[in-house]
Amino acid sequence: MEITFFGSSSRELENRHSVSFLVEDTYSNLLIDCGPGLMSGIFKANKKVNDINNILLTHVHGDHISSFAYFVWYRNIENFGNMSQNDLFVYGKKDVLDLAKYNVEHMYPEIKWTFEIHYCELDDKSIFECDTLKVEVFNSIHTVPCLGCVIESADKKIVYSGDTLPNDFLLEYAKDADLLIHDTMLMKRDFSLAKKTMHTISEDVGKIANKAGAKVLALVHIEPQIFGKENEMILEIRKKYNGIIMIPTEGTVYSI
Ligand SMILES: [Zn+2]
Ligand SMILES: [Zn+2]
């Protein structure tokens, strides 16, 4: 599998985007979330909107869904006149799908889409397949309903925490992950803010990665105040976890 990060920040900045990434294997792909900088992230990574056929929307927060309708519109216009375009499959819980559908229908009521949009409702233990990618979701612990997920292809396993407080439930799914992508919003000194907004601090991410036995840990959803001080964050994690730590930026590609 190959993972391309379109964004890894908790907020939009001039050159940083909200968390979003594309997972691909030879036959299929799955886009995780559609934050405000998605399109720019896709273009920077030299990917084509048209080639993305499956999307998992983890929750309703603006940094994860606000570009969805525009993405759908762009996918249509990019392939204008080509009626053989692949359908788009959108996965998520009922609340996020209702919002996604509402946005598309109300932003673009005049459009005749060149492809079908299939909204596929998940519960907190759903398993679905995007061709050769097998996806299993689980509840994270956040201010609104939110999902984390396991993505498997061949014998490789990627686990994404979703936006979450430390989530012991995730450990069941993250065991021996080849790549654990975890919400690491802040460091220990900002514990109260992380708790209030229901995100995880770096020390706890280290504990989780260690317990799970994750081979590689990717830190995402990082607050802008950390940029430039990433080494401090890594030091906090290093006290708990000995594996490989990476902080992807826009356009980072990682293969497992
Ligand atoms: Zn959130
Ligand atoms: Zn978020």
- Overall geometry comes to globular
Spatial strand order of the main sheet: 6-5-4-3-2-1-14
What is the average of the pLDDT values? Answer: 95
How can the largest sheet be summarized? 7 strands, mixed
Rg, Å, rounded = 17 Å
Count every beta strand, where a strand is a DSSP E run of 2 or more residues: 14
What is the CATH C level class, in words? Alpha Beta
Q: What number of domains? A: 1
How much of the residues is beta strand, in percent? 25-35%
What is the topology?
Layout: E1 2-7, E2 20-24, E3 29-32, H1 38-44, E4 54-56, H2 62-65, H3 68-78, E5 88-92, H4 94-107, E6 117-121, E7 127-130, E8 133-139, E9 147-153, E10 156-160, H5 168-174, E11 179-183, H6 191-197, H7 202-212, E12 216-220, H8 230-238, E13 244-246, E14 253-255
Parallel strand pairs: 3-4, 4-5, 5-6, 10-11, 11-12, 12-13
Antiparallel strand pairs: 1-2, 1-14, 2-3, 7-8, 8-9, 9-10
Helix pairs in contact: 3-4, 5-7, 7-8
The protein binds zinc ion (2 copies).
What would you note in describing this structure?
This protein has eight helices and 14 strands. The model has no long low-confidence stretch (mean pLDDT 95). It is globular and about 55 Å long. The longest helix has 14 residues, at 94-107. By secondary structure, it is α/β, with parallel strands linked by helices. 45% of the residues are buried. Helix 3 (68-78) packs across helix 4, helix 5 crosses helix 7 and helix 7 (202-212) packs across helix 8. It has a single domain, classed as Metallo-beta-lactamase, Chain A. The protein starts with a strand and ends with a strand. The structure holds zinc ion (2 copies). The site of one zinc ion (ZN) has 4 residues, from loops.
